[in-house]
Design a protein that fits this description.
206 residues; mainly alpha
């Protein structure tokens, strides 16, 4: 499996994805702890619904929910990240992952306040799909990091006397390749885990 991944994505990009994943995980954990300790009194439903199209997804069940997750996380969110990556501002494309990680941390903290036992059950049951989903986003962000570098390099190139050849097209094709072969399949897996496995794990605690 390791060798198969490195045929698609180079080790530098993969290591960067891991760094993004660790950073976002720390953000979620810290936000959860701070929310729990401070004791914020917020409406958890409104907080969760503030993440993208979660409100619409929550209205469907079963395979329709899987489809809704795939459309949102597999197509809409990656497209938004790719569009943000061509804006010459570094890390702007990470907002699509950073903001949900922050909001989820707040939601976890509030759930723990309400019922610490059930809160831990919800968090544990969320771990499998969260790892797959967030790492898929981090993998995309890692390759978009390089694409964004090239975009900023091309703008700097305009003002240089000695022009440097920058391979923008090849980096776009690499991003599409990683998305199609790794990110999208991982989002499909995450959709099934979130729809079915999370409920199974939560029900095991009951």
């Amino acid at each position: 499996m390791k060798l198969d991944i490195f045929r698609v994505v180079n080790q530098t990009t993969f290591k960067r994805a891991i760094k993004f994943f660790v950073f976002l995980s720390i953000i979620t954990v810290l936000t959860t702890l701070i929310t729990y300790i401070v004791g914020l009194k917020l409406d958890i439903t409104n907080i969760i619904y503030s993440i993208g199209s979660i409100k619409e997804i929550s209205k469907v069940t079963g395979i329709h929910k899987v489809g809704a997750f795939i459309i949102n996380n597999g197509f809409k969110a990656p497209l938004q990240m790719m569009l943000l990556a061509i804006i010459p501002i570094q890390f702007l494309y990470l907002l699509n992952v950073f903001i949900p990680s922050f909001i989820i941390g707040i939601a976890f903290g509030i759930v723990l306040q309400i019922d610490s036992v059930k809160g831990f059950q919800i968090i544990i049951s969320s771990i499998p799909y969260s790892i797959v989903e967030v790492f898929a986003f981090c993998l995309l962000a890692a390759v978009l990091f390089e694409l964004n570098q090239i975009v900023r390099g091309k703008i700097k190139n305009i003002f240089k006397k000695n022009k440097v050849k920058i391979l923008f097209r090849s980096k776009v094709l690499e991003a599409i390749k990683i998305y199609a072969l790794l990110v999208l399949p991982m989002m499909v897996i995450a959709a099934f885990l979130e729809t079915y496995v999370a409920d199974i794990l939560f029900n095991l605690f009951q």
